[in-house]
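sorry for the late reply, my laptop died twice this morning and i had to redo everyting from scratch. anyway the thing you sent over, i finally got around to it. pasting the sequence first so we're on the same page, its 186 residues, then the predicted structure underneath. double check i copied it right bc i was rushing
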Amino acid sequence: MSRNKKDALLPGERCDSKWCSVRSSGIHGRGLFATRKIPAQTNIIEYKGDRISKDEANERGWAQMDHAKDTGDAAVYIFTLNDEWDIDGNVPRNAARLINHSCEPNCEAFIDDDQIWIAALRKIQKGEELFFNYGFDLENYEEHPCYCGTENCVGYITGEDFWPDLQKKLAAKKATETRKSKKKKD
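ok and here's the structure:
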């Protein structure tokens, strides 16, 4: 069986988990997919990368955002580890960075002993794409549209804790647009 180039890892990348592999995703570029049935609460893959200070994370994050605006590449793979350190997962050895966001995730990220893991929230079927909620805040929500297509998609990549405030912002924006539209008609 031949593999599609989009499904293959890039040079230097490897997926070192028996639970998943890289394939083309209908959501965004490439994603991780279950290679077998995954029981609920299974640690699927470690989110690996460079351990960096908060200052370095801020510097790298803004540089990657600027690069992404020019190239269309993914924005930032920096994950909060603790109050002092973050993990910059923008490294070939981190296949976990390819997991896409969903408003109805089947996985979650958690920290155990200074390691970030992606674990199954529920039983996952072989061939199913893996998703977790990236949990972004509302600061720049408009720069992060969500394409998960789930029934409960909120339209932007934000953490569930922010959804009530996001709904208020979207309702206020819609009301403002409606008022402006009515004024133009008058």
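The chain has two helices and ten strands.
thats about all i looked at so far, will dig more tmrw
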